[in-house]
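Hi, here's the filled form for the chain we discussed.

Project: internal
Contact: R.S.
Residues: 78
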Amino acid sequence: MPWYRYRAYDAHGALQAGEIEAATRECALDTLCRNGLYPLEAQEGRAVEHRRWWERQVFRTGRLSRANLSLLTRELAT
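And the returned structure, exactly as it came back:
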């Protein structure tokens, strides 16, 4: 089943955003309504992870070496 990104208001008027899995867009909207949300939009597709440039560069391997950690902290200190 496809995923849908949605934006909807809850019963308190707060804007909610998220993803839901449903067979069709209409099913996604119906599910949101049954959950007490008032949908503004539902678009097919998963959200793309947005990372800042420095997170992509610094943490691209998931772990910093001691040398890179030293360089990073020295750069931040000045």
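Let me know if anything looks off before we file it.
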